[in-house]
């Protein structure tokens, strides 16, 4: 056997081993309860309180409910007091846990000293940074965004600054106790450079890199970015559930099974596969003008259909 044959045999063996290990690691995602178990007392062992931003609806509301069901008291934060009060009542009535409401608008400046005062004396074991802003439902080029200067400020304040500031407020207590959980909600669109949602997708890349950097710095605390694809929320125009689109409640229950799976997860096996597929397609194809036009047309069509269904229902109810 000459050196050339030995080289290619060694190279082939290395490739087989590499992809074998990758396949083994991926197979763990099929059985999260076995590979990444979380005990019933896990969350309450982190601390007495959980804090959830953007908790008035959607994924944030679902996290608040699940954490309360696990025995934690919850602080829910958003800008709509009426909705927050209703959610607080539902959580209290359903779980018997205490709920603290903080009304705040995360797109505004100079709000965090007041938030810090409200949270100062609480033993906070879990932080869920969920609040986020999508500039436009309909995909559009960066310069075509309405009120672009204000939009840039709002997206950075809500999607970037809020997460960093909330970590600054709550992480010191976790570091002192040597335990805690921080979940930062990213998005599947951050998997690749995503035209027509450029500003939003880029802000979610920050969420992921910030989370991964923090996890490397504070290894005693679980810090994880969660990057979902389809979840039926207002931000996603309440897409019909099924296939790859989850209800917020089902997605959160799934995502929490992957809490110990590393510093980033897509939160469900089908979303993990979607993320892999998206990253496997050449960007030349994804960024082609025809693909971008199809994306715009698809979203516009879905929104038109939804508006038509809503109008039909309203007419029917008025007739009744």
Largest sheet: 7 strands, parallel
What is the CATH T-level topology of the largest domain?
A: Rossmann fold
Q: What is the β-strand count?
A: 7
Distance separating the two termini: 86 Å
Class from secondary-structure proportions: alpha/beta
Q: Architecture of the largest domain, CATH level 2?
A: 3-Layer(aba) Sandwich
CATH homologous superfamily (4th level) name of the largest domain: NAD(P)-binding Rossmann-like Domain
Radius of gyration: 22 Å
Helix content: 55-70%
Task: Please write the string of helix (H) and strand (E) elements.
Answer: HHHEHEHEHEHEHEHEHHH
CATH class of the largest domain: Alpha Beta
Task: Indicate the multimeric state.
Answer: single chain
Give me the number of helical elements.
Answer: 12
Q: Strand percentage, roughly?
A: 5-15%
Instruction: Identify the strand order in the major beta sheet.
Output: 3-2-1-4-5-6-7
- Number of domains as seen in the coordinates: 2
Stretches where pLDDT falls below 50 for ≥5 residues? 311-320
Q: In one word, what is the shape?
A: globular
Mean pLDDT: 91
Question: What is this structure's SSE topology?
Answer:
Blueprint: H1 3-28, H2 32-35, H3 42-46, E1 49-53, H4 58-69, E2 73-78, H5 81-95, E3 99-103, H6 112-119, E4 124-129, H7 148-177, E5 181-185, H8 198-217, E6 222-226, H9 248-256, E7 264-265, H10 269-280, H11 283-286, H12 289-319
Parallel strand pairs: 1-2, 1-4, 2-3, 4-5, 5-6, 6-7
Helix pairs in contact: 4-5, 4-9, 7-8
